[in-house]
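S1.2 Input.
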Amino acid sequence: MNQNVALVERMTLPPATCMKCGRGNTPDGQTGEIGPFLDMGLEYNWGDSGYLCMDCVALMAVTAGWISPDTEKQLRREIKQLEKKLHDKDAELDIRARREHSAVRRARAAEALT
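S1.3 Output.
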């Protein structure tokens, strides 16, 4: 595994473009930010450096089945809520089972007296 992978604010080595979409060191239209980019720490085409913009990294990650940190946080919250609901339902079933067991015992005791 290549240990030279890193996030960089600007692509400094040629060709200084995203390998997938060709985006360069141009400011984002909404925020004015330029980076970050993923420097893959590799060379191709006899000396070209391998960079990916974060949009392409995100697209590849989603395609590979990864989820965003925000989605993970939301899913963890939902899982916690569902686990609490399940716990509450289990507790309710336990209470009902105890009541049923007591009622059956009382009914058998009353039946034995007659």
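S1.4 Remarks. The two ends are 81 Å apart (CA to CA).
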